[in-house]
Prior knowledge:
The protein is of the alpha/beta class. Helix content is about 15%, strand content about 35%. The strands form 2 sheets. Strands 1-4-3-2 form a 4-stranded mixed beta sheet, with helices on one face. The longest helix is centred in the last third of the chain and has 12 residues, at about 90-100. The chain is globular. This is VOC family protein. Pfam families: 3-dmu-9_3-mt.
Amino acid sequence: MQITTTQKITTFLMFEGDAEEAMAFYVSLFDGAEVVGITRYGADGPGKEGTVQLATFSLAGQQFMCIDSPAQHDFGFTPAVSLFVQCDDEAELDRLFAALAERGTELMPLGDYGFSRKFGWVNDQFGVSWQLNLSA
């Protein structure tokens, strides 16, 4: 397995069986986004055959890595670490918020919170936390 990124520091997302579904969903949300590379577990494990051993994908020029963890764990994603997206216009912000909130959880509904004229915070269906901000 040899998947690398061009960045020195890369956000790494650990899933338990739905890494590929999450990655495909995220790539569908951003123009120019793509799956850069993917390696899957084989029949000899240690993960379930066909699940993501390691993948790299790119969103808005930023690379991310993800896996399907072969180990069960008692923790998941937390809003204490989130992906912050500067949206160019309200249409982009509204579209992303609606897509990410579907089957997810709104932490802060879209609104004017003083620090931004339009901002929203959501945990998506996979538990990843996203802050969406309308650029000035």
